[in-house]
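Honest question from a wet-lab person: if I give you the sequences of every part of a complex, can you actually get the arrangement of the whole thing, not just the pieces? Trying it with mine:
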Amino acid sequence: MKEETRELIRNLTEAFGPSGQEEQVRELIASLMRPHVDGVRTDALGNLICTRGARRVGTAGGPAATAGRPGAAGTATAEAGAGGGKKVMLAAHMDEIGIIVTHIDDKGFLRFGTIGGVMPHRCLGQRVVFANGTVGVFGHEKLDDPKDLKFERMFVDIGASSRAEAEEKVRIGDAAAFTRPLERAGNRLVAKAMDDRIGCAVLVEVARRLGTSPHEVYFVFTVQEEVGLRGARTAAFGLAPDVAIAVDITLTGDTPKAETMEVSLGKGAAIKVKDASLICHPGLRRSLEETARAHGIAYQLEILERGGTDAGAMQLTREGVPAGVISVPCRYAHTPSEMVDEGDVEACIELLVKALEGPLEW
Amino acid sequence: MTAHAQDPGRETHPGWEASANRETSAPPARGPYDEEAELLGQLSEAAGISGWEGEVRGIIRGQLEKMGVCYRTDHLGNIIAYRGPDDEHAGLRVMLAAHMDEVGLVVSGIDKSGLLRFRKVGGIDDRVLVSKSVLVGKNRVPGVIGAKPIHLQQPKEQENPFRAEELFVDIGARNKEEAEKVAKVGDPIVFATRFTRLDERRARGKAFDDRAGCLVLLGALQEKYRVPVYGVFTVQEEVGLRGAQVAAYAIAPGLGLALEGTVCSDTPGSEEHLQATRMGAGPAISVMDAATIHNRRVIERLVEVAGKAGIPYQLRRTTSGGNDAGRIHLARAGAAAGGLSVPCRYIHSPASVLDLEDVVNTRRLLVEFLHSLEEGWTP
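Yes, you can. This is the full assembly:
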């Protein structure tokens, strides 16, 4: 992996962006994408939509424009078909799991709710950061049994000694995310928020490396995936794509006494067959497999028993969209130390580039 | 004459419990919250479990007609009222949603003995059911939720509360045939709770979730706005935000606000950080719940408007629960979402308590917020 790509992953994973407060990561990605695309805009929910090779006026319309375009997906298929290319929506989510402040007590301690799949035991000893840079650490009430560790008995300490002092920095409704620098471990990278900044990094690299493509490509960096695939749903409605491909992390089964799963770190890009949110379009999935084989790109097939991705929401948009997923295998998901393999990341980038340069047909 | 054979049209409130001392007698002079209390009383006493919102819809239509507000009713039964410029596309389209439906029960079977079996509609704690007076069906047949009496329970049985499956509704029928004359499978069952003023400001009643929101919305629709405002009285919120989903698709709003009677647990035994809202402390502005992460700019605007107008407010201090905003902000290509709620103690039970001043302040904040949108809104 080039140092440039590694730096990209570092900047993206270290950026702040729990679900609903993705502004900082969105600004970063917008600045990275602008040189490589024709247009960049943000929709009502905060999704960042970057357009490359759009042929028709109005395709990137907001709510008003789409409201007047019933059946737009059908017409898009016909039009794009005439030009030989498809309208392709690529999605990687910008948001990460975190916490949200629900109460500030007289001594300045913060109580919180969770954003996405955060577990109490994974928070012990961890630090969080707020949008304004305020850092806090997790603490908990006296427990008779470690099993009593529940979020409602935990708090965040930002070093304030009174409510007034705390309120100078943090307000109810402010979100915080884990804070950790990216580290290299052999050929592997460890960082918080690999889920799904690694997907964002893949899309940015694809935009940088993509040669001539017959397709209209929409690089969509979505919001609120971790709380229910929300951003992808509205973005897909607005775009009405012909094909949708999400790039996200997946779990692995390659650690000691892990739950059985046929995905390993270092064995290449994972082409998803199914997860809890969708069964990938079999034609699209085979097309991705063929592309990988044709270009000698390492890949593995993935079945994820729990969890979902943006593709699940995109697939059910309007009258339905053929959807697939390219996954980056990732250990220790939803912890502050998510681990990916550099070779797998490169394979995902290459696979997506080659797929977009080809006809993307099945 | 058995109780269930009573003529429903003969009394104003057939089947209700006898009035207690402080109930219903109208105070001689018009107090500051009498107008709100009167309409809230009507809305609260109307029967309207999810899917059977007809009575509530009737009251709301009557009010809208009296106010001269145009409205339509969609296929699911949502009332969509409009207040705004003639051109519905002139500016930011705003959808306000308050749900008409309440949690309740539905008759699922009639026993040989004439007792009614039932299922729950929406989220009700089984423990609040036993021994409550209820009304069954359109004709408000009075009944009571029965259970095995304490005398006959084994000590082990007393350790656990009754599950809904173990309970039944007794309408006084002697056998199946007699019961079938006044009740049938599919009939809705509501709690027979009279609306009561506890003092000038505080009131008790059923279904404040979300008749309080309906009252706030009716109040806000009395004003005219220079941005297109859709006031939607939704159906089937309690069973999965269903009405709001189709209404939002039809309206395609840029901004959606759910108006709720929300959870309030400012009571003994509830630790301060687990109290979602405080009664009497003003409208609760949502920051996040299980269905929505509320738009930061909507929250900021609500806070700013409340500050300027001197309206007390609180931020809703929990992330649990979910309401119509969850569907509105995901309709079509998406919308900014907000939530404004009247704190209500003991929601999803036969009797809730609220503070009428919170109702008035919620309406004031909503109206000020809508007028602020006339001056502009940057998504």
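Two things worth pointing out. The mean pLDDT of chain B is 91. The interface with chain A takes residues 89, 252-254, 272-274, 287-288, 293-294, 296, 299, 315, 317-320, 329-330, 332-336, 379 of chain B (CB under 8 Å).
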